[in-house]
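User: Show me a protein chain along with its predicted structure.
Assistant: Here is one chain, sequence first, then structure tokens.
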Amino acid sequence: MALNKKIAIPLTVIILASAAGGGWFMWQKQHSGKATEQKAAQGKQLYTCSMHPFIIKDKPGTCPICGMELIKKIDGATGGEQTAEQKQQADMLGHVSLSPTQRVMANVATVAAKQSTLNKEINAVGIVQYDQSRQAKVTAWIAGRIDKLHVNKVGDVVSKDKPVAEIYSPDLLATQQEYLLAVKSRDQLKNSPIPSIAQNGDGLVASAKQRLMLFGVKESQLAELEKAGKPNIRLPIYTPLSGVVIEKMMQEGQYVNTGEVLFNIADLSRVWVEIDVFENEVPYVRVGQQVEIRSSADAKVATNGRISFVYPFHDPKTHTVKARVEMANAGQHLKPDMFVNAIIKVPLATGIVVPVTAIIDTGKRQVVWVETSPGMFEPRDVQVGERVDQKAQILSGLKSGDKVAVSGGYLIDSESQLKGGGGQDHSKHTGAKPDAKGQQSPATAQQPTQGGHEGHGATPSPQAPAKKSLKMDDMKM
């Protein structure tokens, strides 16, 4: 019995030691296998789609949904420091890649930003008016009777070298006789040996001549009067300028008083156009600016003039200010009281100019999508200057030659936010919504996927946090 105990105890110890060693060996082997698998899994590169980030593959290929080439999937950095490749890939999260088919379906079109001068075009309406400096009245310089009219109707063309009427006046007839007597007396007294008598003759002629000239008699008529030696019963009346009769007040045989108006004459070779400029556009209007005038009668014919005066008062009913445009009227195509359209082109600024449709305005920032390479778009923050019609001046953020998306920009921006990229909110390479201190919300940053791709159900997906960062309430549509 004692012998059996001596053999059983060592045997038991040996068996226990062997079992412990075997267990330890098996545990080491299993732990080493798991570590190797984890290391292999960590070193294995996964691939995803930039348009559909929930698609995750373990090898390169194409997306089963859109057919785009898969890109390398970026895992979050564990040590806080990122490699250059990781940073470059993280920066690419804000970019959006479109295949030719997607580009056509999204109606994405691009134009090149270019250096240009932005011109503001002011449209106004106006009315043709007479040039007030080219209007005149034909009046009677002496009381009498209109014996003959050479102009019988409104619209007749008159010349200042041809008489428009002839007047009979007893006062004029008597003054002509006095002038003829003074001339005759001067001729008789000019040979007198007494100088004072000869000078008196010249004085009488000068006095009578002055009276006739005050009655509207010209120098040429005085010469004819001296040559004829007898007074003219009817005195011709001339106009002060050549033009068109716009008003006729007298009839043949009518008696008139001194200063009474016979005709109104206007020269239509030049006219005024008074245009109405809205009050918000008045600061752009200056004296000397060129204006293009088109009449409603013939819109194809354009005439150019210049602003000569801006009226210093404002019409409270129409909220406009009048500006006067002086211009030539060759062929008299512009008629007084005719309505016309006026166009004033004001150069505002010179710089980078893009279409307005290329700018996405969130209310706080302006974003433009730039095509950096064929099919690849990146967002750019820009500073917008003047806006005229469908063009905008870019003060910063673009350079000449950059291709910007002028249509489909909102769709590109939506795709960027769906993948957690820059877009309008530009959350730094993640779909997490930053809190008030600029930190990501842990609940959002660690939110698991709500249904991953087959075979990768436990892999976190950026789609859910990207939806949290998508905000459309501050976007101007």
